[in-house]
Structures
1.
Amino acid sequence: IKHDFYNILHTYNGYFELGDLEACMRYHKSLVEITTRAGDLLDLSRRAVEHPALVSLLLNKHEQAERLKVSMDISLECPLSPLPIEDIDICRIIACLLDNAIEAAAETEQKRVTFTIAHEEEMQNKIITITNSSSKPIELSEVFTLGFSSKLGHQGTGLINVKKIIDRYPHCGLKIRNTDSEVVVSIEFSSF
């Protein structure tokens, strides 16, 4: 870390000596993005003790998003556990929803996905929200129809499987809404 820090400072100094303020600003912007991302992922890794399977999945999906040049923000506003659902089921749900979100976002100009877990104190609910940039609204009345997919070459079974899993849990609900520029999927765990 010490060597890395010195190298970063010397690079700044090189730009200043050359008088290339424009290149220095690009370097600074890149450095801020990298350190912010690394810090966020480190914070996420530290939360692995709360729910190792879910954290591992989120780190994997973050890496997948980066490969597709999609910016993925993860916000954990409450403890990850307890969730009133089996680990395998929450991971299957989140994996499918994030795959859909990342693939859809990769096709947009904004290339953005957010994943949030929050807790509503008043209602004793935990809500997982996945939002992605979208190039067009999806037909919500068809998303749970076998064979429906907004992506070419896909079978359209992912959201049907997600719904089947969620329907097995009485305190779990799924909502999807969208606009011209984004899709928001919410999973709500109530009264647990």
2.
Amino acid sequence: MKVFNYFCTSKFLEMTAKERIIEEATQLFFQRGVRNVTMNDLAMHLGMSKRTIYENVNDKDELLAECLNHFEKCEDNDLSNGDRIIDILKKVIEASTSTHASDMGNFMMEIKRYHPVVFKNNVEKYQQKRFEKTCIFLEKGIVEGFFKPDTDVKMMSQILINMFTSIGERWFDLGYTKQQIPQLFKTMFIMYCRGIATLKGVKEIDDNLL
């Protein structure tokens, strides 16, 4: 995802103070966990004072909300180029099999546990948008003849989201190592897509994703 590609680049240096704070905070939250990153940690990594941080965000709750918004925008940019379904599938697999896939699940879980107000006001909205975008994705696939015309779009969208969320939040409890998560995501996503694909869709998946 683009959210993790700005560091040590001219792009990062051109950001405003607030943009740099949000970018660095997102990185640290994913790497170390929400609870383990303090505003002091963030200030030290950015080489700026806590006062500067608090001039841009009121508190950690607001910072977490900004990080979620930032992540969502990066996600939208990655998947919003009018691509064919098979090209979108490639991008989803690339994103979900990155080294940050399991970190995203932990990120959401920690917000739910330690910052319930942020979860209710922001994560639930983010999850609803993911559901809506998944519905649009499946509908597009039906129109292209990639997915079966009798696919229950709402039900299958919820199944996909629940599947990804469950793996992201419970991979350790399920007995997987962090290194195994990318392949697990890819395998389950391809199986899911093949299950609702037409013969045309199955062929495209087998030719391009396996």
3.
Amino acid sequence: MIIKAIRADQNAFAKYGCAVHLTDYEEFADPIQGWRCWITEKFCMDQAARIGMGFTREGAPYTVENMKRDANTKKLFACGAGPAILAVADTKADAAQAGDVRAFLLEPGDFVVINEGIWNDACHGVSGATHYFFLSLEDEESTEYVPIKGGTLVVDA
């Protein structure tokens, strides 16, 4: 089965959590010093958290055979310097179901927060190597990747 990644906007991603495009917020800039920044009005996480960075060498299309979930915590994913894809599934069973998996395209400056119990894969680059950041609650339980029921998926941009 092949699934195409779609843009992670708030409407498309609402079933899985929240999506934010930082550049949709007011820009603060100092043209003399050459900096620009954006900041959200409030943050989507409720407790103290850990910050991580992931790196992937592969770009789309790529295969997804396994997913993991954090049953009791939200998790934030933030796009690094290049576009990335995050595959998620809202399956209540003990493994993600192939028919439930959706892929979302994240551009630099985008982040998404997935709700508790949402299955997810690691992020992957669109056209090759990229990095991404993630934030998870400090009391996050240890989770393992579980094979997707219904077979391996191919994700494309």
